[in-house]
Write a structure and sequence with these properties.
alpha+beta, 3 domains, elongated, 7-stranded mixed β-sheet, about 675 residues, about 10% strand, 5-stranded antiparallel β-sheet, Rhopdopsin 7-helix transmembrane proteins, Heat Shock Protein 90, Beta-Lactamase
């Protein structure tokens, strides 16, 4: 009896309070509140509470009023989203609210079916109806949480109080429905407790209506995805409960075994699907395509983009640039193509094996990207007839690589800083205008990073030259002292050369000066030579054999090839050039590996190959650092030898080609213009 009185009094007082709130809300001069939707929700809540107090909580009219109450509050929440400034709420929000409304109507339909079928049918479907009502409460709580997360940063206190009240209403519903489902019965204290919860909610809403404030709603994608995930989880557990309840009804003696098998099997299937990367990517693409106005959340994408570019660590800038661009489109990898001899050569990569890509550069592609600045969809080019300008410019090897998806140019101040080749994402899709716009802006941004990095390298190189000049100034000072000492010795020799003591002192002075000069030469790490000779016909094999013989005591060096090779060269310069290359090969090779000097001739050219089996070099190092001064792949190396070798080759109109693979050694080929035996005879006669 006491429980029944509590139910009547709490729900009657709730009806009275919500009825008064209808009047207060209608008179509230707050244009930012969805007043009409709020008044309707308050009115249906008052009618529901009045029905519970007057005729009980299990009657058909009460259930209809409860459903209308829930639908009205869902409508109020949608109206709040409209007040965020959008013409209409985002499609994802409307979809979720629609699903929750359908579940609420389904719960009412189950109750109607049970009531129409008699007591036996009603008892059998009551558990299913409770599960659906629990699902409505769970989903509504998730939506309230999403709304609160969106309102919290900028909302006034009024709306927050109303949101708190909604959370209390549906939290009480969930608690009571769960208890009734477990106990398989309704207790008076549970219904009375629901009435007390509604009283507290009414007081919270009344407090909120007295608090006015500025507010604005902005639903982020993260909140939307989290809300959808929570709704999906809640739906899964509700359906799982429904299925186990159905199995218990029809399973007989094996019901417990069938329920256990179903729970384990369905859970394993769900976990397997969730762990599939392709499925996750497909769901993300479909949600972005159909539930949002824009494919990308530009704020979060740009924050991740800039964080990747500026992240400290061991990863090089070129690799971070590739990753930053790839992450924008969920691409699993990419390759940076950099300017190389007028074309584009393979540079740094991220999650892509560079050994599968060619080492040669492509000039036509570089010119096309620099002139047009277009982002190239390689799938569209593959399906083209091959007559378009994009299809003509793209090299065939790029189209033959199946994972090659998109080529993004990197323009900077009217020139091409490079391009990025992106790998195909797990779920391949054609590019649209949003992809092109985002990649275009990101490409320009990373191009400025590349240009700044290269400018910093040039500045650092200039600073190294300054350091070298300062170092050379100290050496000049020492040379001046040596010259002064030798000059003084020469002057005294004119007067004291006949004295044995002076001669002994002069020999000691000369020896000391020679040792100091040799130390200076060692510090310079290169041989000084005078003005280069004009290239003329000379035999190459004797010169190569001299270079090999000079280093036989240091490392195994052998020679091979034709002995009749004659080329146009400066013999002293070529010998010094080969000396640098052989020395580098020796330092790069293990002590037991032989360095080979191979001479070849084809009538037009004479080649000298310096071959080692050392550690090798990457394509990026060969292109960007090999022939630059003060850059060396050897620990403590000065980097002058390769730089001077290139200068010497250019002086005699020769060139150097390099072939190397990391871990497989290197081949330096010096290519000279061939000469005839008659030219050599003429040189000797002269």
């Amino acid at each position: 009896m006491i429980g029944t009185e509590l139910i009547v009094w709490t729900h009657a007082l709730t009806a009275l309070l919500f009825g008064g709130l209808v009047v207060v809300a209608w008179r509230t001069p707050e244009p930012r509140l969805p007043r009409r939707a709020l008044v309707i929700a308050l009115a249906f809540t008052a009618l529901w509470a009045l029905a519970v107090a007057g005729i009980g909580g299990d009657e058909m009219v009460t259930r209809v009023a409860e459903t209308l109450r829930n639908l009205a509050w869902l409508g109020f929440m949608i109206a709040v989203h409209r007040r965020s400034g959008n013409v209409s709420p985002p499609l994802v929000i409307g979809t979720v609210y629609g699903v929750v409304a359908l579940v609420a109507l389904a719960a009412l339909a189950v109750h109607v079916i049970g009531a129409a079928g008699g007591p036996e049918v009603a008892s059998s479907v009551e558990a299913g109806g409770l599960l659906l009502r629990m699902l409505v409460a769970v989903a509504a709580l998730v939506l309230v949480q999403a709304l609160y997360s969106s309102v919290l940063p900028s909302a006034g206190g009024g709306l927050k109080w109303i949101v708190f009240a909604l959370a209390g209403i549906w939290a009480a519903d969930l608690l009571i429905f769960s208890t009734a489902y477990v106990t398989a019965a309704w207790a008076n204290w549970e219904i009375a407790l629901r009435g007390f919860a509604m009283l507290i909610a009414a007081l919270a809403i009344g407090t909120g209506l007295q608090r006015k404030g500025q507010w604005n709603v902005q639903v982020s994608r993260a909140v939307a995805y989290q809300s959808l995930s929570l709704v999906a989880i809640g739906a899964y557990f509700a359906l799982l409960a429904l299925a186990t309840w159905g199995i218990a009804a029809v399973g007989g003696e094996n019901a417990r075994l069938l329920q256990t098998a179903f729970v384990f099997g369905s859970t394993a299937a769900i976990l397997t699907l969730v762990a599939n990367s392709w499925l996750r990517a497909w769901i993300k693409v479909k949600l972005a395509k159909h539930l949002f106005r824009h494919r990308y959340d530009y704020r979060s994408e740009w924050m991740r983009f800039t964080e990747t570019l500026g992240a400290p660590g061991d990863t090089a800038l070129d690799e971070r640039i590739v990753k930053a661009i790839a992450d924008l489109t969920d691409s699993p990898g990419g390759v940076l193509l950099v300017p190389d001899a007028g074309g584009l050569g393979v540079g740094a990569s991220w999650n892509w094996d560079r050994a599968t890509l060619p080492l040669t550069s492509d000039t036509a592609l570089a010119l096309h990207l620099e002139s047009t600045g277009r982002i190239l969809d390689l799938d569209a080019i593959r399906t083209d007839d091959g007559s378009g300008p994009d299809a003509v410019a793209v090299p065939q090897w790029m189209l033959d690589v199946p994972e090659a998806w998109v080529l993004v140019p990197l323009p900077h101040l009217g020139s091409l800083a490079g391009a990025i080749l992106l790998a195909r994402p797990p779920v391949s899709r054609p590019l649209d205008w949003e992809d092109f716009d985002l990649l275009k802006v990101a490409g320009r941004q990373v191009a400025s990073y590349l240009a700044e990095a290269r400018a910093q390298e040039l500045l650092a190189e200039s600073q190294r030259f300054d350091e070298f000049n300062r170092r050379f100034a100290f050496i000049l000072h020492d040379i001046k002292n040596l010259v002064s000492q030798l000059t003084l010795t020469a002057r005294n020799a004119e007067r004291h050369a006949d004295k044995p003591e002076f001669r002994a002192d002069m020999v000691a002075t000369l020896k000391d000066s020679a040792e100091r000069m040799n130390a200076l030469l060692a510090r310079l790490s290169q041989n000084h030579r005078g003005r280069a000779e004009t290239p003329h016909a000379c035999e190459i094999m004797p010169l190569v054999e001299r270079v090999a013989a000079a280093r036989q005591q240091q490392h195994p060096v052998i020679t091979s090839g034709t002995h009749a090779a004659i080329a146009q060269a400066d013999p002293a310069g070529l010998e010094q050039l080969l000396g640098h290359l052989v020395q580098n090969a020796i330092e790069a090779s293990p002590s037991h590996e032989t360095v080979t000097l191979a001479v070849g001739a084809d009538g037009m050219q004479v080649t000298v190959d310096v071959i080692d089996a050392g550690a090798g070099m990457s394509p990026a190092f060969i292109r960007d650092k090999l022939f630059k001064p003060f850059v060396s792949s050897k620990p403590g190396g000065f980097g002058i030898g390769a730089f001077e070798a290139l200068q010497l080759a250019q002086q005699m109109e020769a060139r150097i080609e390099v072939t190397s693979r990391e871990g497989s050694g290197s081949r330096f080929r010096v290519i000279l213009k061939a000469a005839h035996a008659a030219d050599l005879a003429q040189e000797r006669a002269a």
